[in-house]
Amino acid sequence: MSQSSKSPVQYRAVLSKSMPFESQSHRKNYADEVTSAAAFDDAYAISMHSKQLLEIDNNAKPPFQFQLPDTRLAVKDFFRTREVAEFVSGALAGAMTKAVLAPLETIRTRMVVGVGSKQIAGSFIEVIEQQGWQGLWAGNAINMVRIVPTQAIEFGTFEWVKRTMTAAQERWSKMERKSVHIGPVNLHLSLSWISPVAVGGAAAGVVSTLACHPLEVLKDRLTISPEVYPNLSVAVSTIYKDGGLGAFYAGISPTLVGMLPYSTSYYFMYETVKNAYCLKKKKKSLNRIEMLLVGALSGFTASTISFPLEVARKRLMVGALQGKCPPNMAAAITEVVREEGLKGLYRGWGASCLKVMPSSGITWMFYEAWKDILLVNNNHI
């Protein structure tokens, strides 16, 4: 047995036998001191052992530990992506454009649906006399609410589909050529004939329309009949009460039909003219004035091609307000031709171009500017 493991009683016995002392009391006092020291050593050893056990227990990890993932970096990376930059650029471009051109939108809508004067100047005067200057911005609040998500979804969808289609064509061209044999005929499958810009434009129009059509309905109702729909909340409750949720999608079919040629030609025209001009001038990009002009030209072309469908669409959307609503798009076109002739299909075309051309030009200019800023800041260019 080691000395450190002896008990206080054993210390007393050993000391009394092995060490000479002057007196019995001297021997007893010394033994008491040694015994106390030994007891202290034992207590210290026990405390240190307990401390070590406690440290081991504290440092030990539980067998099942749940830790929430740190999403801050993922969110930050998401907002720095190209897609988000394009989405935000579209939203900002739409908001800035509509804030400037709201009066032209009001006049265009009134003339398309046949409300009031048939002349642009007369329609302006009529609105001002009846509702004051603020009447030119009738429905602009809902128009702003509508245009921000619409333009964001539209531009974001266009850029993403165009990029995806281009990448798919590149991958397809590197693969072994696919062919189909039908008797003596050998058909080679290729994606080169498909325009990524046209597909992207068509997809942009369809997706944004499906997402934001109820806002378009509200905007037209507020613009045409402010006495019936004085504000947004009244318009929402009245439309829902009259026709339920389906009423917010009144005219969705002709809208989609009319949107396809407009959106496809709009984006195709802009990209084609831009690329051709840059190639001819040996430039990498357009300046702001050139963007404004090319954007205006693309809007003019798209509006001219699809305007008869736009007239029919507007008739279907607000026909209920006049007590006569055509059952479908063909009926709406027939009704217009019967009442006003073929020229009736282009009634309001001048006002539409007056609105669409500056709107398209300004939108493209703002969009390209915001996209350059955001993409450069996020190191995508």
Automatic annotation (TrEMBL):
Species name: Cucurbita maxima
Main location (coarse class): membrane
Gene Ontology BP annotations: transmembrane transport
InterPro entries: MCP, MCP_dom_sf, MCP_transmembrane
PANTHER family, alphabetized: SOLUTE CARRIER FAMILY 25 (PTHR24089)
Signal peptide: none
Segments annotated as Solcar repeats: 81-164, 192-276, 286-373
Localisation per UniProt entry: Membrane
Protein family membership: Belongs to the mitochondrial carrier (TC 2.A.29) family.
TM stretches of this protein: 247-268, 289-309
Name by which UniProt lists this protein: Probable mitochondrial adenine nucleotide transporter BTL1
Membrane protein topology class: Multi-pass membrane protein
Gene Ontology CC entries for this record: membrane
Keywords associated with the record: Membrane, Repeat, Transmembrane, Transmembrane helix, Transport
Lineage, broadest ranks: Eukaryota, Viridiplantae, Streptophyta, Embryophyta, Tracheophyta
